[in-house]
């Protein structure tokens, strides 16, 4: 199976395991790919809606993997049993929903060895939430596909030191690795905010002033993040 760039990057973060649960599986592509690659022995493709599960079942049958991948209708990880899976993927959902799934499934997730998370929004809030809930981010990746940027992370149980505001927003490990995709994202964001700031200069209302202050703060964080890409002199 050929995965999209985003799904391929997510799959690459999964360690070799006996069983994986894919939450919000949609077409079931990640479990199919990982089983065919021999990276996992079996999988549970989970989704809250029957429509995606039907599509997933069709693809699983097409690949002859019905004896190794089961589908399960579930709100988050509500239908996952303790100790059933060692890896859990939660990808393609908003950050608030991702945090909700982690909160509501906290007990069953205690038996999971790793989480692969790819929130579509509120990424800074998700990173802060993980630190507060005694999860630790151990690796990060970011890909660009069709003009959109997708940060993702591998998460284990354990305490994590507090990060800086810049690290929460853009990812400590992405900055440490001087990730080129993150740099491209930062430069696009900087250009966008510079343009907004220029337009706001034409209006001197109180509301506009507050908006300029917000954008100035964002530009400062972008500038702080870009410092990670400056080579040391000497």
In short:
The protein has 234 residues and is α/β, with parallel strands linked by helices. Helices cover 45% and strands 23% of the residues.
Written overview of the protein:
There is one protein chain. With 234 residues, this protein is an alpha/beta fold. The chain contains ten helices and seven strands. It starts with a helix and ends in an 8-residue tail after the last helix.
| Estimated helix fraction | 40-55%
Spatially, the strands of the biggest sheet line up as 3-2-1-4-5-7-6
Low-confidence stretches: none
Compute the separation of the termini in Å: 48 Å
The rough form would be described as: elongated
Describe the biggest sheet? 7 strands, mixed
Query: What integer value in Å does the Rg equal?
Result: 20 Å
Write down the overall mean pLDDT.
94
Series of secondary-structure elements, N-terminal to C-terminal? HEHEHEEHHEHEEHHHH
> What does the oligomeric state look like here?
single chain
Helical segment count: 10
Query: Which structural category fits the helices and strands?
Result: alpha/beta
How many DSSP-defined strands? 7
Strand content: 15-25%
């Amino acid at each position: 199976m050929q995965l999209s760039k985003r799904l391929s990057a997510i799959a690459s973060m999964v360690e070799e395991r006996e069983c994986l649960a894919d939450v919000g599986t949609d077409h079931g592509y990640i479990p199919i790919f990982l089983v065919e690659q021999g990276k996992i022995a079996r999988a549970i493709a989970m989704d809250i809606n029957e429509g995606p599960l039907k599509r997933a079942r069709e693809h699983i049958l097409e690949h002859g993997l019905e004896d190794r991948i089961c589908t399960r209708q579930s709100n988050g990880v509500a239908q996952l049993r303790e100790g059933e899976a060692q890896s859990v993927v939660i990808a393609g959902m908003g950050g608030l929903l991702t945090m909700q799934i982690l909160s509501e499934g906290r007990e069953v997730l205690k038996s999971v060895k790793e989480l692969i998370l790819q929130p579509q929004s509120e990424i800074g809030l998700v990173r802060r939430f993980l630190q507060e809930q005694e999860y630790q981010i151990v690796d990060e990746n970011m890909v660009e596909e069709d003009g959109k940027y997708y940060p993702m992370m591998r998460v284990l149980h354990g305490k994590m030191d507090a990060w800086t505001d810049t690290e929460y927003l853009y990812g400590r490990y992405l900055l440490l690795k001087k990730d080129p995709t993150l740099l491209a994202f930062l430069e696009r964001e900087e250009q966008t905010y510079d343009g907004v700031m220029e337009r706001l200069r034409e209006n001197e209302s109180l509301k506009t002033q507050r908006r300029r202050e917000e954008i100035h703060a964002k530009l400062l964080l972008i500038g702080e993040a870009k410092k990670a890409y400056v080579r040391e002199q000497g």
